[in-house]
Model the fold of this input.
Amino acid sequence: MKKVAILAQKGGAGKTTIAIHLSVLAMQRDIASCVIDCDPQQSALGWYEEREDSDPPVVDGHQPSGRRPDKTGTLARLLRVAEMDEYDLTIIDTAPHAAEAIGEAARAADFCIVPCRPAILDLKAISKTIEILSVSDTPFAVLLNSCPPKRGVGENSMVKESRDLLLGQDIPLFKTAVTQRAAFSHALIDGRAVTEFAPGSPAADEIGGVLDELLELTK
Ligand SMILES: Nc1ncnc2c1ncn2[C@@H]1O[C@H](COP(=O)(O)OP(=O)(O)OP(=O)(O)O)[C@@H](O)[C@H]1O
Ligand SMILES: [Mg+2]
Done:
């Protein structure tokens, strides 16, 4: 079973959006997937409550405060259950501003995705997340999310500049960038994802690109 944590110290980077979309698309491709929601805000669980389909399951992985993360912790236990239940892919959605919990998720995962908006303050803020990640030694890649749409041919200049800045610091990066599109938030309202709400749309294609890269990176 592949264990993929989505993390970013910064709030609103798109962790939950990416976690849900990857898990739904994996399921649509017959990859048995589930989500562990470690965020006390429980956004992924809230999405699941609205969902008609019971797949992909979202379970509560929030560690009650005061309990130190250890081998008997909530996340480690849920990952063992997912493994026993023969899931192929477990996505761990994490809370912002939670260095200890992010560190625990990074150590438990085989791979981490760090979503980041292509804006200077966001790009600067990811160094904190990368510091936490480097302690765990788990491979990771940054995923540019909420990017301005392309105008004409070629990439938007903000996306290109962000890409150059990260690659200039040898920070691994997904080739696919996810654009700011209303479909990503509309689809979630009634418990769906863009690949169900608008299959074949540019938004669905982008998530397809991210999942293809993720599967390649975690081979
Ligand atoms: N590519 C996108 N296009 C349009 N809206 C997006 C996109 N990515 C995220 N959003 C919207 O941005 C907001 C924040 O996204 P999300 O909740 O996924 O971030 P988060 O990192 O999980 O936040 P938190 O740190 O609070 O957990 C949401 O309203 C979501 O619908
Ligand atoms: Mg979230």
Notes: Strands lie at 2-6, 33-37, 58-60, 89-93, 111-116, 140-144. The first strand starts at residue 2 and ends at 6. Residues 141 and 172 are 5 Å apart (CA to CA).
